[in-house]
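hey so i finaly got around to running the thing on Octanoyltransferase from Aquibacillus halophilus. pasting the sequence first so u can double check i didnt mess up the copy paste, my clipboard has been acting weird all day
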Amino acid sequence: MLKETWYFVDSGYCTPAFNMAMDEILLDWHSDGKIPPVIRFYGWRPAGISVGYFQKVSGKIDVMAAENYGIKLVRRLTGGRAVLHDQELTYSVLVSEEYPGMPRTVKESYRLISRGLLEGFKELGIEAEFSIPEGKLETTDSAVCFEEPSWYELVVEGRKAAGSAQTRKKGVILQHGSIPLNMDEIKLFDLFIFPNDRVKERARQAFAGKAVSINEVVNEPRTFDDVKGAFKKGFERGLNIDLVPFKLSDQQMADVIDLSETKYGNAEWNYSR
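ok and heres what it spat out for the 3d tokens, dont ask me to read them lol
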């Protein structure tokens, strides 16, 4: 079968506001027909906590603790619960809803796109599989992502290894997600508000059995670049595509920076709920 050519954007480490602005700009460009579908990889510097589009900050996120850790809060375009982006590889997929073979439903499009993640884990020698929850997913009041895997998220040894979120705007699917290399559970749970320390510690201990990072399940520690290379190959194989590097022009980069400052660096957007 003939492979389609998609753009590949390797952003390296960027600020939380820049990362979310870049995803939105790429969505707009693809919607306008200026660029083909895109796979993007990036890291976070400083570390960030992204909250879901509909998620409340007040009473859920410990903003002072985030500031003390030097963690910047940003609101995503996608839904779901808060994610700490620290020692991880983050991916974004931007593709038209009309792309040949792309399922119409969110659940099935998750499955197709997540083939790239499955193959990426295989490339690292990690046996991952799709999560297929039994019955209806249990919903909790927790604001923490990685508590429970959703349909077709990736699990390793029964624990969630990658968390993803998806939205559809302007005829384009944006799916992005977090692939932790290492996980600091103390820091993570310090970022959320609990009734008391006893409840917080109980939640943290329960969480330990539900989530896993790459370096917990490999024989030798993997770096950001190791993981990036593996998942690039994984997406090419899993989606049957060729990825070609895309470098933004000076003007395009200026547009991303402008959006990062006016929207994603703006408290009105980030703390509005």
